[in-house]
Amino acid sequence: MISETFKEVLSNEGVVSIVTWGRGEANVVNTWNSYVVLTDDGRLLIPAAGMTSTEGDLAVNSRVKVTLGSKNIQGLFGMGTGFRIEGTAKLVSEGAEYEMMQAKYPFQRKVLEITPELVKQTV
Predict the structure, then answer these.
(1) Cα gap 56→61, rounded to integer Å
(2) Is the Cα dihedral 27, 123, 46, 118 positive or negative?
(3) What is the reported pLDDT for 1?
(4) Domains along the chain?
(5) Going by DSSP bridges, is the β-strand pair 15-21/63-74 parallel, antiparallel, or unpaired?
(6) Cα separations (Å) of 70 from 29, 49, 98?
């Protein structure tokens, strides 16, 4: 599910948009490609410094949609490519992966762990 192109995008800076929704309107937060850690089993780990609205949404609905991209990577039609990810998410505040992320990103409060069910190249 995770292509080499996706990995290349993560290794180049770009914006990541994370969409969650609980009982009300959708909530969008942003981070950077360089903060996303891809695990061996294809999960995405993202440091969460704030993300309190995201946390509230995830308490009601664990579904998440994410977009990310980089203009520096060859896409489907030219330079620049992006991906849409759909899956589930949770916020983690303990364990080995939390500790690893805390060492890399001491500003984090928790780790947003995303388990993709769909990873689709969009451009």
Answers:
(1) 9
(2) positive
(3) 78
(4) 4-121 (2.30.110.10)
(5) antiparallel
(6) 18, 23, 27
